[in-house]
Amino acid sequence: MCVICIKPENVAMPPKERLEAMFDSNKDGCGFMYSRKGKVVIRKGFMKLKHFQKGIKQEGITDKDCLIMHFRIATAGSVNPKNTHPFPVTSDMGELKALRTETEFGIAHNGILQLEHDSHHDLSDTMTFIRDVLAEPTIKKNMFNPAVWYLIEEAIGSSKMVILDKEKKFHLLGDWVLDKQTNDGCYYSNLNFRWRESKEEDKKGVVNYYTYHGGNSGVHDWRDEERWYGCGYDKSRHITGFRGDENAQDDKEFAKGQTDNLVYVDYDETDCPHCGQKIASPKQVACTKCGKVFYRLHDEVIN
Fold first, then answer.
1. What domain range is 106 assigned to?
2. Which residues are within 8 A (CB) of 164 and not within 5 positions of it... i.e. 6 or more apart?
3. Are both 204 and 274 inside the same structural domain?
4. Per the count of CB atoms within 10 A, which of 108, 128, 144, 183 is most buried?
5. Residue pLDDT, tens place only, 71-82
6. pLDDT tens digits along 27-40
């Protein structure tokens, strides 16, 4: 799963450690976009984090700028600099693949679009959707018309998409999150990269919360005071295994049951959202009444 980080105007850049976590979890290339002088500027094709950081420095990005960053895991289209995000809204394949461009609208996408991507031209699903749908003149001209916006939201399903315009305004499609743990003021398409941050902190003995790692394999991780648990799916959504308590039943049915049994609760919530049972502690892994496993959120969902 890719991740998009939106740093609004007058918000500090995420620290180096957070950029490293996002890149390390999504290593198939990255890019960024910002608005300046009536144009959206796109820089992409960075296959190493140090080159990404150098590009931001070259563009003179400051905390005053709105900056949208995308870190990719490839699901359609090959792993190469030209297929990294963001993209201009255009039907020109040369412009879609350009590593630096200026445009009216820029787009970054997180998720999988249910359409047949143009593999003949090595276009990802996002690039194909932009070329064949969003760049269609009637759609592009009326991009923010409520009816058109509704149709775009329906088309992308559970995906997340952000459109940046030349007026420095960003427009969100899908459910986005704010990180309540850091309160850094940035918007994220997901916080799955935090498993890397948390596991580093876990080595220091300072972590006592639960995390979720979607990553390339769709792994659910959660922990209590003693150990990490997890259930994994491969790309075809088949259970690949379970790790955790040595006494646990180590088989596919148990793993699937644990994953399907997850419920989302706020990190300091005191009641089970499924049955209403009072939760004894914010460190509690599961409900003692209904058996639901808690995925504790450290973020605020932005619809």
1. 3-188
2. 33, 34, 35, 40, 66, 68, 86, 105, 106, 107, 170, 171
3. yes
4. 108
5. 998 877 778 899
6. 899 999 999 999 99
